[in-house]
Amino acid sequence: MNPIKIKTIAEAHGAFGLLGPEHPLISVLNYADFQIPPNGGEMSALLDFYFISLKKGFTNKLFYGQQTYDFDEGMMYFVAPNQVLRGAGPEPDDDLSGWVLLIHPDFFWGTSLAKNIKKYDFFDYAVNEALFVSDKEKISLPALFRLFKPNINPILIDSARTLSFRILKLY
What we know:
Distance between the termini: 33 Å
CATH class: Mainly Beta
Radius of gyration: 15 Å
Helix content: 10-25%
Number of strands: 10
Shape: globular
Oligomer: single chain
Largest sheet: 5 strands, mixed
CATH architecture: Sandwich
Strand order of the largest sheet: 1-3-8-5-6
């Protein structure tokens, strides 16, 4: 199966049935807002941006690299630009919840993180594991995603950039 190429955050919003992003380089999405038809079969996407997701209540499996992952109990996963994300969409009975942070590499332009982000091995397929979320993290991580939401308008973008650096450094 050839992956579809999703080049921009605006294209990702369209794929999820959402209105365009408030900012072209960064977006926070709540899975509850997605307008994806129930499982229409497996799909594969090649992304030109970072995709950081905290997800639970998803009964289908996703492929990350060559591994499959089960999201029933909650999991966090990280996809770097030019990595393929593959899997089937949600089932009608799924109680899908969680958040997605989309960040275009240009968002980090001119910062130390632009040079250092490759050091974060959770973006590397070689690790071959997603991050399972503890009960404590199931409470704290959604709060971190919600912190981004109000800071993603063009006027406050420096706040979002600073916040993203701090959160990535935590992990």
